[in-house]
Amino acid sequence: xxxxxxxxxxxxxxxxxxxxxxxxxxxxxxxxxxxxxxxxxxxxxxxxxxxxxxxxxxxxxxxxxxxxxxxxxxxxxxxxxxxxxxxxxxxxxxxxxxxxxxxxxxxxxxxxxxxxxxxxxxxxxxxxxxxxxxxxxxxxxxxxxxxxxxxxxxxx
Length: 156
Prior knowledge:
Helices cover 28% and strands 8% of the residues. By secondary structure, the chain is an alpha+beta fold. It folds into 2 domains: 6-60, 434 Repressor (Amino-terminal Domain) (Orthogonal Bundle), CATH 1.10.260; 84-156, no CATH class. The protein has a two-stranded antiparallel ribbon. It is globular, with a radius of gyration of 15 Å.
């Protein structure tokens, strides 16, 4: 989308956090990858196509051109049984330990640092925790890469 207001990206992140929706949940709802949402929220407006940006604008009631929002009631969300421990999807969070394998940069989520008590938010940076693979939805395990789809949990 051309001339995307940077405030829009920031407002989307704030609205998602206020609604207590993880990046993975939002990505599944609007039809993109969790990593694209992460990069978009960091200000890279080129990571999402116009359709996805329009869905985000509609979902959170934020005007694309100005980045302003109208107050909206929080959507009702069913309470689901989630695994106790989650990981932080923020690639810049200190709870994600970076390393390289065959020239590929990866981040190994430290679930005990990000989620020591089974909370909803990262104890280090405050991001909404992920409890399922952002790529395929499988339950997470210790490690950096999902054993079901082969994709990294945290995109670096």
